[in-house]
Amino acid sequence: MATETSAAAESARQAAGFAAVLKPVDGHISIDSVAGVQLEVRDLAEARAFYEPIFWDAAGSWKPSARTLTFESGSQSLELVQKAKPRTFADGGQHTAYRVRATRVSSLAEQLAEAGHSVEWWHEDHPQERELAPYLHDPSGNRVQLVAASSADPLIAHVAIEVHAFDYCEYLYVRELGGEVDYYHGWRVEDQTAAKAWLDGDDPAAPWTRRDNPGWTDFRDQGSKNRSIRVPRPNTQVFLRYGDTRLGMISATKTRQEPPEEQIVGTPRILFRSSMAADQAAARADAEPVPHERHGRSIYFRDADGNFSELRCG
Amino acid sequence: MADIESISHSGMVAPDSRAVHTFYETVLSGVREETVSRSYEGTRGGNAHSCGILGDYVFVTFPRRRDVAPLEQLRGGEDSFRHGFAVSRTRFDEITQRLQEQGVPFEGPLVHPERGPLGESIYFRDPGGNYFEVCWRRDEDVQYNPVRVAEE
Amino acid sequence: MHLQSLPDTSDQPTVYGGHGTLTVRESAKTIERFSHLVLGVTDLVRSEAFYRDVLGLDLLGRDLVGERAPHSVVQMNTGQLIILVLTDQVWSPGRSGVHHGFMVTPNQYRLLYERLHELGYPVEDDREMYRAHGQYSIDVVDPDGHRFQIQCYGPEGKQIMPGAGVVDCGAISQFKVGDVRPFKSGNFHLVRLHEGFLAVSKWCTHFNGIVIYQKAHWHFHCPFHGATYDRRGVPAPYPGNSACGPLRLHPITFTDDGRILVDTDETITREGYDPSQVSNPTREAVGARP
Fold it and tell me: Distance (Å) from the C-alpha of residue A249 to the closest C-alpha of chain B?
């Protein structure tokens, strides 16, 4: 009655492509930069009122339409889509970091706090984010980081998303889309050490950068399955560079319902820009297993954890 | 015949476990298995879990420090451990050339006694300070039991 | 006292290395194969006795390679070696995580288990609950503190698991499109897609772990080695996915009074998903009230 799994099935799995090295594959899609984000908000006017003081230093303009509102600044944009129940991941590490003139960051944070927004000062782990910076949510719950800079050009410094299947998502963002690993956190001894200070309350690290869940060996070493054990550890994060912009991938801090599995075009989504022709980008995307759709000059992707992105070509 | 077929994997430590596996992948053509754990014990943590395949051997590396000699000491491990890999004799020079091209310092080649199973070896370290050796084997034509590898 | 389960008998070695990882030809392009492990030991005679008499390796002899100190060479059946080098002091791994894993056939595992048990070595597997079906492991420490696992993958990890006969899943009307419902008896999930029903086996095609459905991710996930499959049981197409082919199916029939029956004694192995694999009831069965 017992039978072996067919050798053909095993070979088929191998034929699916076992990437030797997770670096951009030859002929990968070439991305110039992170061009912005498209976010969901409950009310466009309310969102505009929130973002206007943040974008004060940026050269740009607002472009409204019936259900969307876009702030265009140079080659980047924040595109707001009105939804009755916006998906904003307020309790996670997803966020967009906007540049604000360094001389204005503190006063702007105070102004936003006085307007009733809860502003926290945290640091993250990327070498360029070790100083404390203000974090808050827009009125719909999208997390915002203000980055002190000499100018607000380009406006968006980086975007961060949360992923569960880390290596599967790296396949898209590194191998297929050509992101270069800029920095990673969680794999070094010093990262483990830094996490201890956070658990002791001595370190204002952004909450999604740390974890306190025990692993099997912690239970073994502490001799019990005591669920109240808290073990400080760094949360694994990888930062990818696209041109002068950055995408942060953070191990998910919470399980959230992904959009329906057949949905490839969705929001919120990261916007990428490429000078590559759409035909060429589409051909390269077709050669890879990541779900995608082409509409005009845009290729839409859905990563292994349901995060959406759009590549605007040409 | 021995009572043990083969040795298949090692758990290792390194101050930067991801750097070590990037070394295996880029310099030694290893294959990545995962860098963040997807299995039962990891799903509650998104834990760093660097795992990859080198030749027919699996390495899992944990971020931890241990006392090792300065990295300039290329040959060692006799007081702890060293992993030795083999290539065919005809490819041995290719390996030494590859290490040179990749800027990896190594010691050797050292010629082993003719009475034994090893031919020549070179010695180097991974970025975590773990000791490595690549050799060709004098017994490479002996028909030992094969290590089963997929796609044979 | 239960020490651990033992594998079914077999002389067949496995293509898997440690941690359920498939060793692949792709990884042997530059470095072809593992040759030898060099270990520091403080007493050659004592270590020879351990590796030869306890672990059953072949002792080839002394001072056979170019090590700088007296040493002993032991060999496994694949020609892989352990070179035991005499040293004053050995760095002992303790609980650092440093260890090495032997891979043995199921018959070798049974032999070693008995021998280690008779010699008084602990043979309990305190991680047995984390291992998939057909995965076995014993921890053993050599006289200098070097830590080893003796592991095997038994044929039961790849076998079609026995079913539980025909399972009555209930009325068609209880399942709306999108539902993925687990059934303990017979170990399957009943999935209702737009195109029809699938009875998807819970047994992971890697090593017969039991997959769970994670609704948030729309996928089946095996907690043992992280294999993931979509709702149709097709493996996620990413490198490193442990899945070895789509999850198997069981045939579905529908009663005249609108109930869904799954025959878990019959298993369908497939290469991929095709819409012809789904089952749909007749209009009469859909409209029937049980």
Answer: 12
From chain B, pick out residues whose CB is under 8 angstroms from the CB of A182.
none
Whether A242 is in a domain gets the answer yes
Cα of A36 to nearest chain C Cα, Å = 26
Cβ-contact B99, B124 below 8 angstroms = yes
Query: Tokens for A60?
Result: 């740009």
Output the CA torsion B109→B115→B117→B123 (10° steps).
Answer: -20
Spatial separation of the C-alpha atoms in residues A184 and A157, rounded to whole Å: 17
Token pair for C128: 């047995």
H or E segment at A248? strand A245-251
- CATH code of the domain containing A94: 3.10.180.10
Kindly list the partner chains of chain B, i.e. chains with 3 or more CB atom pairs below 8 Å: A, C
Interface predicted TM-score (ipTM):
0.96
Distances (CA, A) of A113 to A109, A207, C126: 6, 20, 53
Domain spanning B9-65: which CATH class is it, in words?
alpha beta
Which CATH number is associated with domain C166-287?
A: 2.102.10.10
CATH class of the B67-143 domain in this structure:
alpha beta
Tens-digit pLDDT string for chain A (314 aa): 323 334 333 333 333 333 334 567 777 899 999 999 999 999 999 999 999 999 999 999 999 988 899 999 999 999 999 999 999 999 999 999 999 999 999 999 999 999 999 999 999 999 999 999 999 999 999 999 999 999 999 999 999 999 988 889 999 999 999 999 989 999 999 999 999 889 888 899 999 999 887 776 676 666 666 767 888 889 999 999 999 999 999 999 888 999 999 999 999 999 999 999 999 999 999 999 999 999 999 999 999 999 999 999 98
C101 touches chain B (CB under 8 A): yes
Looking at the domain C18-157, which fold is it? 2,3-Dihydroxybiphenyl 1,2-Dioxygenase; domain 1 (3.10.180)
